[in-house]
Amino acid sequence: MLALQSRCIGAEVLRGMNVISRRKLFKGASLIAATAIGVNSVAAESNNAKKSKIIVTGGHPGDPEYGCGGTIARLTQAGHDVVLLYLNRGDPSEVAGVAKNFPRVSEAAKACEILQARPLFAGQIDGAAMVDPAHYDAFRVLIEKEKPELVLTHWPLDNHADHRAMFMLVYEAWRRMKKSFALYFYEVSTGEDTVQFAPTEFVDISATEKQKRDACFAHASQSPERYYKLQEMVARMRGAECGHAFAEGFVRHAQSARFEWPV
Fold first, then answer.
1. Chain segment 19-44, per-residue pLDDT in tens
2. Which helix (H) or strand (E) holds 186?
3. Which of 46, 103, 226, 254 is deepest in the core (most CB within 10 A)?
């Protein structure tokens, strides 16, 4: 707005150059300079904005990327430290304690590189999620170690058991940590996995949709050419709701602190 205002002032001065007085010209030039200072001040304030630690949790490698990859890209571009925390390595054949190269771990690393985030794994097994006192304790310790100011996780009404398990682990950690971080929910594969999701807040991802797409296609073993179509449709729908080409929607827990999304 300030930059636009300065251009308008400059055009007005130029149009009236043949009749404008020297005093008015200097006054207009001073106003332009002052406006430019204002623009620089706003930019400086933005650059000095507080940077936050953010965790985006997902049942499997790919869930955070598909659900809110555009927002993740915007957060990391703004300088925030973002961790993608996956419940498992995406391989149902995994045997606890047995070393193995997991393709989806490598894909997650590539996706995180695209989004400028850091991958982290909670150590459970795909399709065999455990939610019990021991796993509640271990997961809380994992979250406490990262010291997040914001955690994004699955919406609890979800057709995939691993997604629901991740929600429960996050929710219990939030409660045990005395609700010390902001808690928001995202949607993934809406209608197939997430159901009855009605966003309360939106993030414009028009400028980062390609980055989100690239991160999702990094999960090459998961048929992204098929599954991304649904995510793109949802992003267009959320964009239409809030007046942008593409957007991602979130629900803030009513008892959660608010987080200042990128605008």
1. 333 344 334 444 333 333 232 333 33
2. strand 182-186
3. 103
